[in-house]
């Protein structure tokens, strides 16, 4: 072959090579949709101006949608896709590495206590939840309003008969200001114990509203009182609307509204559904007239009384199996109402709301599968209790739809099921360390993870849904032929998975290195229990369990937990420093005392319910957040600390050297 012919071939090859920035936009967007790390997008953006513009205009949006597609993204955050991508990636890393800080809030003493009989002593007792000898259970809810990079977070909770709220202004997760408000229940005629808050929900009149304080809170009490209360600065605690049947309505429908157990609002039907121990009542909602403007705050006392449009005595419903009392209810995505019952052979009922009335049916039985252990299938002759209910938007999961519900039961299981018909999505979850301990309340983050609060102790339980995961922070770390470390010591005897000894990933053949392949295996991504430190008080005579959980949004960095007399705020963070200043710590006018403390964790396994609880046969390792450990860890190379499965606050010095020779841990390819 002549030199001329060779030159022609080389010229031909060069001409056929297409540069990335010359591709049609639709083809380019398809290519970058396969990028699985933010670093890949940033690398493409740094090559030339045209690609930088593509990444800015469409790339970050595609990254968020493909890697975090199951999360609910508020519409008013979409103007800053690059900031959102940055926030979600570090949040995902913080969840996976268990990088949390915990702040506990308890009421401050309100004055000196004097010996028996003095007025000051009685007043102090009233501010400490009246004459109750046992602390009240904190019931909490939270909501965030977005305006681009700025966020207004509102957290409100019931403490006995009182209401407390904190409004926090944040920008890019940095706190700008805090405002606290307290409404003493006694000033509105509420009594401790009898009128304790039992259910609470921040009312969102417009999900697209981004400015101002134009929101309220629905408050249900043990006495049956249910009302919408203002959360505005000038009218906080004032009643906007009352929801209660008239006396004639009580007689006609044989129902009474006593002791609010639970309530929920349905956006599709514009309804408020509430349950007592025996009945379900449906009220109309008109969000356009329920929250007045700030200028109308002087007329808040002119409240309206709203009567139910439907009242159902569930005990009298046709074919209804006996039950002790109603525990909870939630609107499903398709408009149906899921109802959880105590001590019933049919603990989960579905109420279909039609133009002609309501129809009550039993939820579909689960079909045993690899994800749903046959041992836990509900039997018609066995009574059970459905505790927490949580509808799941499962459109991002194959086989998912608008009928999918997550529910927790008295036997300790949590069940994900299509309530209309058995489907492939049906899964039974369980804590492998405390397999029979029930979970009282549930919160989920898309289809990525859900959080449960223990009904027996101050434990927050983190579960992975175990569906195909989008983003993993380990994908952006260097390759290696070592195993992820440290190997978890789980309650069950499970063998560690193996993989080929491969030092580098081969993206052409699709083969991963040892470390990247094993980092995504469930064994190295176990669920975890977090054991919270609670403030000790003179009333601490009973177990302190989690009575409520609340998240401001799917993309929030904060989770709230209500306990006996205390509120715990759990924040995602980078590497934890226990000596870091607390946000808004004990400033003037703050009605609650704030204290930061460590959270101990135990890793509990993949979370799929065990066929036999005897498989949970050993005590796992409990790790504590120890500030002094940070001093020792500074002697460890940064690369090793980053590759550790857990946050530095949980790392132990010996983690970095156990089996170091056999795993070649420090021979990582940079």
TrEMBL record:
Name the UniProt record assigns to this protein: F-box domain-containing protein
Annotated InterPro entries: F-box-like_dom_sf (IPR036047)
SUPFAM superfamilies tied to this protein: F-box domain (SSF81383), NHL repeat (SSF101898)
Highest taxon listed in the record's lineage: Eukaryota
């Amino acid at each position: 072959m002549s030199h001329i012919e060779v030159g022609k071939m080389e010229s031909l090859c060069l001409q056929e090579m297409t540069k990335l920035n010359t591709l049609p936009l639709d083809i380019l967007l398809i290519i970058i949709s396969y990028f699985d790390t933010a670093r890949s997008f940033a690398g493409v953006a740094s090559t030339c101006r045209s690609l930088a513009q593509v990444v800015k205009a469409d790339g970050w949006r595609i990254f968020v949608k493909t890697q975090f597609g199951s999360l609910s993204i508020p519409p008013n955050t979409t103007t800053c896709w690059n900031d959102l991508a940055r926030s979600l990636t570090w949040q995902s890393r913080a969840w996976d590495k268990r990088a949390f800080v915990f702040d506990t809030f308890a009421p401050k003493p309100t004055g000196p206590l004097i010996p028996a009989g003095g007025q000051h002593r009685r007043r102090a007792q009233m501010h400490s939840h009246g004459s109750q000898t046992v602390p009240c259970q904190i019931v909490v809810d939270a909501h965030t309003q977005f305006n681009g990079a700025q966020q207004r977070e509102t957290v409100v909770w019931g403490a006995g008969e009182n209401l407390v709220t904190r409004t926090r202004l944040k920008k890019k997760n940095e706190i700008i200001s805090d405002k606290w408000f307290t409404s003493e229940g006694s000033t509105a005629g509420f009594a401790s114990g009898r009128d304790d808050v039992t259910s609470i929900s921040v009312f969102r009149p417009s999900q697209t509203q981004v400015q101002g304080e134009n929101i309220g809170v629905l408050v249900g009490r043990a006495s049956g009182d249910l009302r919408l209360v203002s959360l505005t600065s000038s009218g906080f605690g004032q009643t906007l609307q009352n929801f209660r049947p008239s006396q004639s309505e009580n007689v006609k429908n044989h129902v009474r509204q006593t002791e609010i157990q639970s309530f929920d609002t349905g956006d599709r039907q514009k309804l408020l559904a509430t349950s007592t121990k025996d009945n379900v009542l449906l009220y109309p909602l008109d969000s356009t007239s329920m929250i007045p403007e700030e200028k109308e705050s002087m007329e808040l006392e002119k409240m309206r009384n709203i009567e139910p449009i439907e009242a159902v005595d569930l005990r009298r419903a046709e074919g209804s199996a006996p039950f002790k009392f109603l525990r909870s209810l939630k609107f499903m995505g398709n408009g149906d109402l899921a109802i959880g019952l105590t001590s019933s052979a049919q603990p989960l009922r579905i109420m279909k709301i039609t133009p002609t009335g309501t129809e009550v049916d039993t939820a579909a039985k689960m079909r045993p599968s690899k994800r749903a252990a046959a041992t836990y299938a509900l039997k018609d002759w066995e009574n059970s209790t459905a505790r927490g209910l949580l509808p799941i938007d499962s459109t991002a999961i194959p086989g998912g739809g608008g009928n999918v519900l997550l529910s927790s039961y008295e036997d300790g299981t949590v069940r994900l099921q299509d309530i209309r018909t058995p489907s492939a999505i049906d899964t039974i979850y369980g804590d492998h360390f405390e397999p029979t301990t029930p979970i009282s309340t549930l919160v989920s983050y898309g289809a990525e993870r859900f959080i449960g609060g223990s009904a027996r102790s101050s434990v927050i339980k983190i579960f992975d849904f175990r569906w195909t995961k989008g983003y993993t922070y380990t994908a952006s770390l260097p390759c290696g032929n070592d195993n992820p470390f440290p190997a978890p010591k789980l309650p069950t005897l499970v063998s560690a998975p193996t993989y080929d000894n491969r030092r580098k990933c081969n993206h052409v053949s699709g083969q991963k290195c040892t470390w990247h392949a094993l980092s995504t295996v469930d064994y190295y991504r176990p669920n975890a229990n977090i054991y919270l430190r609670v403030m000790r008080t003179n009333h601490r005579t009973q177990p302190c369990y989690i009575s409520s959980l609340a998240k401001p949004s799917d993309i929030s960095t904060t989770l709230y937990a209500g306990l006996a007399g205390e509120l715990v705020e759990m924040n995602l963070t980078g590497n934890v420093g226990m000596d870091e200043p607390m946000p808004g710590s004990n400033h003037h006018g703050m009605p609650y005392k704030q204290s930061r403390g460590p959270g101990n964790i135990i890793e509990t396994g993949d979370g799929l319910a065990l066929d036999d609880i005897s498989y949970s046969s050993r005590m796992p390792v409990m790790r504590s957040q120890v500030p002094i450990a940070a001093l020792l860890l500074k002697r460890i190379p940064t690369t090793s600390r980053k590759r550790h499965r857990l946050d530095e606050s949980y790392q132990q010095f010996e983690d970095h050297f156990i089996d170091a020779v056999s795993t070649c841990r420090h021979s990582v390819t940079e």
